[in-house]
Amino acid sequence: MKARVQSILRRILPRGIQEEYLDAFEELTLSMPWVIGEGAALLVGGYWNQAVAAFNRYGSAAQILLTVFCFSVVARPPALLYGAGAILCAVTLRDAFTHQDAPSSESRYYMGLAGDAAVAGAFLLLAETLAVLFAPSLAFPAPVLYHGAVVCLPLQPLLRMVLRPRPDPGPVFDVSTMSAREVYKKTCRLSILWLGTFNGLFALNVSDKPNSIQDRLIGAVPMLTLLLWHLLQRNALSRRDHIIELGVDPEKKDLSRQKETLPQGLTKKDPFYRWYVLLEVMIFVELSAALLLVLWPWLIGQDTSFVRPGVSLAAFTTTVVSWKYVKNANRGAALALEAEIKAVGS
User: What does the alpha-carbon distance between residue 295 and residue 100 come to, in Å, rounded to a whole number?
Assistant: First the structure.
């Protein structure tokens, strides 16, 4: 019986404390009822300790706001609290289960995010089923459940990806098989594709009103934020240095100009690091605002077609997931150009 309880605990204990708690359970010499009770106590205590350790007040606040936004068309607060509580319970249990369990690969990291969405969906479905059977006043109307779940379940793992550590994807291009100029060209193409997706999400919010202030803000503010973020990371003087000097290889100058067109990142020691971080946060805030403006009419039933919200969700997901790859590609291209600059004329 003890071996069976131990096998069950091995499957469901939080990963970060699994071995420690199993070792403690192995040392117990108790009769059958006490073994079961002690196993249950270890399970409850383990999840409680890990949930407290994994708690992030900013992340929790963001998840609550997202859940309330997706289901806030419900007029009855008890139903909203009940449904949102089911999703937040699922998220809390997943945090406890995966806390201190560093993913060994990026594929495992994304599988974990998919698991977050699956568990949240299962908890929501179970809660709504129980509500229909025993407390119909707490159940969401079918349209509200459908619209809210379609939006909330994909966005929950994306939000968690932004708010918690993510494995470094590493180099995007294999610089050992390409010249620095080839890496630079591929990086520029990738950046243009990302920029097109970024702009496409804002283009979906363009209104029919002539001289609309909203349209002007949508057209100017996001691009200005991205441009300022970009400008903080490069040396504009080197970028525009077209003067041919005696003793300086023109090839080296050309490579240097290409390098300074790339956003190369900043460190904490750099003078504009705080502005760099703030502008990056603003980019995601503006992206989120653009997405919510598209989703809200669909959530409240004004827009019956899912084409526009679906395209917006796809664009938002692509932009957020690929952001780190685009940054790594630009930094890798800058390093490759720097290495070739040093090699020229040496």
Answer: 34
